Amino acid sequence: MSDFGGMEDLLQDFLQEANDLLSDVDNKLVDLEKMPDDRALLNDIFRGFHTVKGGAGFLNATELVTLCHLTENLFDRLRNGELELTAELMDVIMDATKGVREMFGELGQMVQPQPADPAVIAALKGVLSIGVAGVAHVAVAPPPAADVAQVPPSAPGEPDWNSLHAAVTSEASVAPTQSEVITKAETAIAESVVTPTAVVAQSAAAASPFGRRGTDKPGGQPTSARRAEERGRENTIRVDTSRLDQVLNLSGEIGLTKNRLTSLRADILAGKNDSETLHALDQAVSQLDLLVSDLQNSVMKTRMQPIGRLFQKYPRIARDLARQLGKDVELVLAGEETEVDKTMIEDLADPLIHLIRNAVDHGVEMPEERQAAGKPPKSLVRLEARQEGDHIVLIIADDGKGMNAERIRAKATEKGLISEEEANTLDERQSLNLIFMPGFSTKTQISDVSGRGVGMDVVKTNIQKLNGSIEIRSEPGKGSVFIISLPLTLAILPVLLVLLGDQPFALPLSLVREILPIEQSRIQEVGGKETLVVRGEVLPVITLARLLGWPLERYPEYGVFMQTAERSFILAVDSFAGRDDAVIKSLEDFRPKGVAGVTTLSNGQIVLILDMKELLSDLGQHPDFGSAVRALDFA
Known about the structure:
Largest sheet: 6 strands, mixed
Number of strands: 18
Number of helices: 23
Strand content: 15-25%
Strand order of the largest sheet: 10-14-15-13-12-11
Shape: flat
Radius of gyration: 31 Å
Distance between the termini: 57 Å
Oligomer: single chain
């Protein structure tokens, strides 16, 4: 049941604006940490919290108003010179913005937000109560426990029956109210110095493992178990009105051309087949073709969004992780105005988070290590986007210690991901690509940041889902660069049409490097497997018929040199039907393995778009071709 009956549209508008505003505040906070005396930044952040507070007040979100009001007052003190910004105070501010974002998540579920973490509220009120300039640190008292001395403790291993009874009956006397907690916390500020993180940990440790959580509301809607990224996926899009005007104008032009075609059709049906009528028909069809292409491009542009909307989330992530690890890292953004399809922006969130966290955790060194190596103590991580032709290129680079190919091979062998024989055949590029294997990690201890060997595997999988590729360049002692190449849009896919007998199939053109004839005299067997030498490189040859499980009636005459992020091979086919820009239709109810989707040709014929990764994974399980495909992994 919604707490905002009749205000749903207003709430969605508020959340969209407020989320953008808070992301901007997060970025300005990272900048403020470098320039604590910048009054323009202080004023901008103050106005940001003030604007969010005003919208929340209109929606009667009192808990959000309270948190924003306290943070707003803190920035008022900062900009008036009554407080000095320290690292500890910045941690309190960051915790407050985190609390605001969590409340946005609750509002997105159409429920009023729960009260903010008492530790954060106590920290904010504690800072405001000091009221003098030059605060060296922020003192925060943990919320006092309820006075339960009169209640005999439960036996070890038994539930806390008193707390459980209070949770069920909603009795308020067992635990102090939030205002009591804050008041007692303020009086204890001078006696106890605890960081907000410690307060949260202490509170969590003291919480009873039984009964209802303190944030639960009787009769309330259950909290969604989806990830925050999935909850935050927007169903709306902002479009420049000039682009909509262009779509409207093209629609009008198409309507006029349609009327012209209808008139010409009537003339032809009436027997008017002279050259002038046929020439007019040809002109009208050509004009319609041009207008439809322009309309298609204009509609695609309405889905394009600046990638800066995604980039603006990452400086805060890099800052928090660097501070957690004791590193000094600055994330530099470039190319934020580059436009990418909206769906692609949402699907890029996870891979970019993993790559940035990987750069901060694995890539850059501790300040003392950098100084010993003759580097500045501050590390730089660069996140850049640019358009190259019909592709978008994303670059994540760091000036850290780089990657050692020999160490990566040894680690993969130690974990049993590859054999020593396979490791000895790998060059530097292939060795670096081993980090994308599931289960690979150079960390010896698992932490909440890394060590489980799943992050880079997720990156590779998600990039491939977007029909993209990822490349690694690294130089020990100087840093690493990850280069992601993506198509401009996922709605239209350039494909190469190949023939197997008379049946056409579509291959993603992004994987095709060249087309070459196959002469059986040039086919060589290496280890019992067919190979072809192309400019000195030995490449495995796989026929499309065997890949699909079809009988091989005659040996193919042509080969398609295909290359993905981690493998290169020759796909042998019978012939070609040309190149096309396929409008992908997904097979939601039934999708055979190895089929990415379908498209329709100009003659109405339905063609399958092949998913080469799935087809090759199936081939790897075949007893006759398993070793050949295993060799492909590192070819």
